[in-house]
Amino acid sequence: MNYGTIEELQEVVYERHGLGHRLRVCWNEEESWTEFGDTFEEAAFGLISETGEVAQLVRKDKWEDHALNEGEMLMELGDVLHYLLLFCSLIGVELETVARCNQLKLEALDKGERRTFERMLFEAAEEDTVIDNVLDEIDVALEVVSR
């Protein structure tokens, strides 16, 4: 079975967990994450657990003389991706947006603008602003900085 794009895979992961269509999770304290109940926890703990499996393979390679197996690693990284995609779906964010946010964060760190990046991102979340618009603003702001 070929899922094509990351976005298509994200939809499959979302549906696999019985969530039907995508929903936007509200970030405010009144609604919290109760709309999704166990699924939100499953995504968080699944991500932690599968990341731990990756760390376990590295630990065994380094200290237990168990050679790192590419197949095992790919399988565990695929599981990490699965739960990351589920988490992204639950909060209504595309994986590409996460990647772009991380890229801008790294650029901000390189230019000594970490606090500016965080302030802009956090303020946008409080105002429920469209995240892609905020990332565009951050991108423009970072272009001006020449460190």
Word description of this protein:
The protein has 147 residues and is mainly α. Helices cover 69% and strands 0% of the residues. It has 6 helices and no strands. It has helices at 6-16, 38-63, 70-91, 95-110, 114-126, 131-144. Helix 1 packs across helix 3 (70-91), helix 4 runs antiparallel to helix 5 and helix 5 (114-126) packs antiparallel against helix 6 (131-144).
Keywords:
single chain, mainly alpha, globular
Per-chain topology:
Layout: H1 6-16, H2 38-63, H3 70-91, H4 95-110, H5 114-126, H6 131-144
Helix pairs in contact: 1-3, 2-3, 4-5, 4-6, 5-6
- The global form is globular
Query: For the CA atoms, what is the radius of gyration?
Result: 18 Å
Instruction: Please report the distance between the alpha carbons of the first and last residues.
Output: 47 Å
What class do helices, strands and sheet pairing give?
A: mainly alpha
Could you give the order of the helices and strands? HHHHHH
Q: What's the average pLDDT?
A: 80
* Uncertain ranges: 21-29
Helix content range: 55-70%
Beta percentage is: under 5%
How would you sum up this structure in a few lines?
The chain has 147 residues and is mainly α. 69% of the residues lie in helices and 0% in strands. Residues 21-29 have low confidence and may be disordered.
